[in-house]
Design a protein that fits this description.
globular; Arc Repressor Mutant, subunit A
Length: 106
């Protein structure tokens, strides 16, 4: 049996809309659901909830309670994505700044 390409395998987890944006928002520390929601204009509560559930299932994000609040944070696996997200941001700034993209990410 042929093994799945590592890029394809990673893309199945991270290539869905908003996944890398969530990693970026959590790269500076834990956030509540509402903090994440308000930091990502255009995402719906349903989409964010589903994305967080999938990232938790993949082992990239964890959730913990502190008082009445539930916080989301990156796991060690998730933290290893920070340099990748930063490289994508740098690439976007270099090559996509000032361009209008007709791509719907929802």
């Amino acid at each position: 049996m042929q093994q799945e390409c590592p890029v394809t395998k990673a893309w199945r987890v991270l290539g869905k809309p908003w996944r890398l944006v969530i990693v970026d928002r959590l790269s500076n520390g834990p956030r509540t659901f509402n903090q994440l929601l308000f930091s990502m204009p255009g995402i719906s509560t349903r989409t964010l909830s589903k994305a967080l559930k999938e990232l938790k299932s993949a082992g990239i994000v964890t959730m913990y309670c502190s008082g009445k609040n539930h916080y989301y944070s990156l796991t060690e696996m998730g933290k290893e994505l920070i340099p990748i997200v930063n490289a994508i941001k740098a690439w976007s700034i270099k090559w996509l700044s000032g361009k209008t993209l007709n791509i719907n990410i929802r």
